[in-house]
Amino acid sequence: MTPLTSALAAIRFGYGLHPGQRPPDGPQALIAQLRDARNDAAPAGPAVDDRMAMLDANFKARRMRRRNEAGADEAIKEASRALVGTVTEDSRRLVARAVGSEAGFFERLAMFWTDHFAIEAGNRRRAVLTHDMIERAIRPNLTGSFGDLLKAVTKHPAMLVYLNQARSTGPNSIAGKRGKRGLNENLAREVLELHTVGVDAGYTQKDVREFAELLTGLGLDEDGFRFRPQLAEPGAETVLGARYGGGKANVADVDRALEDLALHPQTARHLARKLWVHFIGGVPEPSRIDALARVYLDEGGGLMPLYRALVDEPRAWELPLLKAKLPFDFVVSSLRALGTAPREVTGLNRRQFEAWLTVPMMRMGQPFLEPGGPDGFPEAPEAWITPAGLAARVSWAGALAQERARDRDPREFLETALGPVAPELLRRAVAGAETRHEGVALVLASPEFNRR
Amino acid sequence: MTDLDFSRRRFLGTTLALGCSAAASPFVTPVTLAVTPGDNRLVVIVLRGAMDGLDVVQPIGDRALRGHRRNLSTGEAGGAHDLDGFFMLHSELSGLMPLWQAGELSFAHAVSTPYRDKRSHFDGQDLLENGGNSPDGGMTPGRDGWLNRMLSLLPGASAQTAYAVGRENLLLLSGDAPASAWSPDSDMALSPQAQLLLNAVYRDDPLFRQAGEAAMTLAAAQDGNAMNPRQAARAAALAGFAAQQLSGQARVAAFSLNGWDTHQNQPGGLAGALKELQTAILTLKQGLGPAWGKTAVLCLTEFGRTVRENGNRGSDHGTGGAAIFAGGALRGQAVHGKWPGLKAGNLYRDRDLMPTADVRGYAAWAMRGLFGIDKGKLDTVLFPGVDLGKDPKLIA
């Protein structure tokens, strides 16, 4: 039987137990997963310029239709097909990787940072950029320094578009003086409030304003990110007491500000607290957050030392399971417990993928990669285990078990899925189910399987 | 299996006809409902994202307006409707003008919650729903919602009758008074035996136990009509569902409408959000029928937006804003509040509309008017520390 430490490592820091995989047996094994996951970090899918070209073709086709030009309908169909096809493939790959991965901690961290830098694409077509941000900004940087991760995400087209940065224009810049366009504070505010120092860090409206002026120039062209000096506000800006710029408009000034923000003590605490709440749960003692933040700062903003300190926390290895799995985690861990192969996920057609995965996740309260705002999905168990959310989980568990577990012995399945975490009460209930698949559904719908 | 606790059997109803397997409608926001004694109805719509009050209820009579805004709050040129010679109503709410004429529509302007300066949506919304008094957004110790606290003041709002409908917990109605959540498109496709077993395994985890009980109770009580919001517009589905419940036993409903955070191309974005809001209000009126005469709808947002238009034909997070009230229970056709003026020296922090009244005061007086809440409870239980101001007599 799986030892408790291994079960906790897989459930709390990964996507749960898998009958074909040996679970990590403790903190060192989790860190080893991150070192071994270099291959998992390699970006997949079309490059960003191809994605920008798809969006551009879609935009142009729609303009043709507004102008009643010949061939517009055909062009729209073509553009939509390319975009929806790419996003579907990106989505299937994302789920399949989590379902099959031997490096569950890496995959969980990829989703943690995706949520930390939350984007609402708003529609399926625009999600081509969200996926690119995950592939090219988040996954390759999540075991490096937070400063590099922050810079990569802040300059990614998905973020520049979502938080209105690409059009933000310095009032005294070359473009600004021509009139028409001006400053937009959205990205500057959210970088401070959500991505780095946090809302309680004591920054002022003036910091937001000056940071927004500093960020002017972060823009786009058909290949992706491009610094556009003609939008950049001239003169130096002061953000949280430090001065930036003043010379020729330069992306290096923005980089320097982001690096300073990454190393701000409030950022260290903000990241430490978020990682604790996400992976361990409950209310962390301030002394533990201080300790994690200190490791991060002492190690120059490196994320690996921070992860190592987190998994070394004694609380990380104690019961009970305080958190509720998010719907995505619940769905992925259910598929893993049933031994689903990644190719079974990538093999689903678009309609099946939606019917089996994205629509159920939405009904459980988590539209796939679409948080309600830039603050991401909530962490509190109460936000997810609502009557409607739980009903959707039970319903999906029942349907999945009927489809895939008609011949499983639910008593064995209970050991595979939960091992030492399974309570006696659940053991007896599973044994009393009328059918095998309902026994499996009971395991999947149980509090223990839905927590981590 | 005899040693398992099956005392939850009573929740399972007779045949467990739970199979409303409607395909989920995309992005249904929650509707929260509660049953209270008496005949008056209250609907609270949370407008998430910070509605630009200056564009919705445009102070055209203020001569400083045009200096701040060229593309927004364009008055007659933008098709806005005159309200009282000073304020004009945004053209996308044209469909509400008959309500204005009939005295079923009013507004409060230059209002805000106590939240100041940080201008975070999330903190601002938490404070709006929690009803606390802290300028930095901190919540009251109970961390509950003011609608829930109001329920606790109503004798007869019991565990059997007070319940909520929604996909997530709306802070506004969460707290100690009994309430649970449900959304119109859930089902539970398990056999009765599996349901019993499931109840048993939820026994020791209070979170799962409560959610599971409510899910089953409400699934059994669902009315099939409400379950297919897919074809209808989102706002119409939410409001229609609320109206249906309010026509029956429920007396309080709350839901939220998103899409007000108009940093860029506000004329387009705001038009979409206002269309949804107008649909929601008109759907409530139609669905409630004669009960509309006993209904008040309060549309509240976390804060207003900057007085000056930004560089992208949009506006950024501000402070003072407007609230919208509708319903046959109103003494309408009024824009309430003391107008602070838009001249440079009159703005809050030289950027925002100066709030001259607390929006919680309006909500408090409305609840007193509808449900006879004791005046001493308004600024203690409902909104601790609020300056109630003079009764604006929103309710007829």
From TrEMBL, chain B:
<dbReference type="Pfam" id="PF07394">
    <property type="entry name" value="DUF1501"/>
</dbReference>
<dbReference type="InterPro" id="IPR010869">
    <property type="entry name" value="DUF1501"/>
</dbReference>
<dbReference type="InterPro" id="IPR006311">
    <property type="entry name" value="TAT_signal"/>
</dbReference>
<protein>
    <submittedName>
        <fullName>DUF1501 domain-containing protein</fullName>
    </submittedName>
</protein>
